[in-house]
Amino acid sequence: MTMEYLDTEQESPLEEDEVVVHPAVENILTFWSDESRQAAEVAERFKGITSQNQNASSH
What we know:
Radius of gyration: 19 Å
Distance between the termini: 37 Å
Largest sheet: none
Number of strands: 0
Order of helices and strands: HH
Shape: rod-shaped
Helix content: 55-70%
């Protein structure tokens, strides 16, 4: 999931530079997006590992 997907500026009457984001909230959003990216990568790796294990156990 990308930040573009979460962006609601089209629905918001405010311009992007008028929206004040609290630094803590910005940190959480940045952390969340980084974690999501890492989680997706881990999930892909895990899928690869489990498919390899299934192939090995089916022999």
